[in-house]
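Morning F.,

Quick status update on the modeling queue. The single chain you submitted on Monday has been processed. Sequence for confirmation:
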Amino acid sequence: MDTVALAVTDGMLHFELSVAYEVFGSAPDAVTTPWYRLSVCGPAPVRVGRFLLEPDHGLDRLRYADTVIVPGWADVDVDPPADLVDAVRAAHDAGARVASLCTGAFVLAAAGLLDGRRATTHWAHTDLLTDRHPRVSVDPDVLYVDNGSVLTSAGKAAALDLCLHLVRLDHGSSIANTVARRLVVPPHRDGGQAQFVTTPLPARTDHPLAALFPWALERLDHPLSVEDLARQARMSSRNLGRHFRSVAGTTPLRWLLTQRIRRAQELLETTDDTVDAIASATGMGTAATLRRHFNRAVGVPPDSYRRTFRSPAGRL
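Structure tokens below.
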């Protein structure tokens, strides 16, 4: 996998492109084995954000690369260019390993490379990827997915995780760790992008649950039940469930659990409270219960989350 081609065209995101160029473009000083031969392929010139890029070759050269990297696609509401989609598909058909960074997954999906496969993209766009390409099994909770010849990463910094994963596959963990040290990043991150997903309340306020949401959020330390919520909303439990699915896209108990996890995240980030105290404050009851639900929802234990996201104001 010694030749790497970056597939670029107007509308690419410069951060993801720069990440790939930094990882594959030059070998660390400690590496004595042959490094990648990197080229940039695309129509010339290419507008990437506020930068003008001069590719080395046209998109037709992608098919000669061992690995093709597709950086993030800026406007996911617009179909990617047909020539880019065709070139990426042709490269894969010719035997290339194809990897997308962030929303570059929309290019791979348009090329049919993700049909029947598990994939991911930036968490803010996973629903759109699912709706637009129903044959793709979209996983919104991981940093990257490796299907062998087709790989996808989640948003932004997860592009670096995937690039380091490719180096690890090609050159081993020691070399990948060396690259990570040069970039001053961890060689491997635990958990998934669920750690970074926000859980905002519905923007609309003209729905039957508008008053219920803040009422419940003020009582997360209480053992609320569906019956409690229905009583406060002055409707039957069945009617409550119907409104929850319409407004929040989930069930009342699932919504409550999500809010309890989010409150636990806030307390882990901003306080020195013990896990036991946070479990009580979020209605989880015990630390064991909090750890079980938190690990399942976020992908890492509460203690690991605190070490990663602890704000300066929360430190003694």
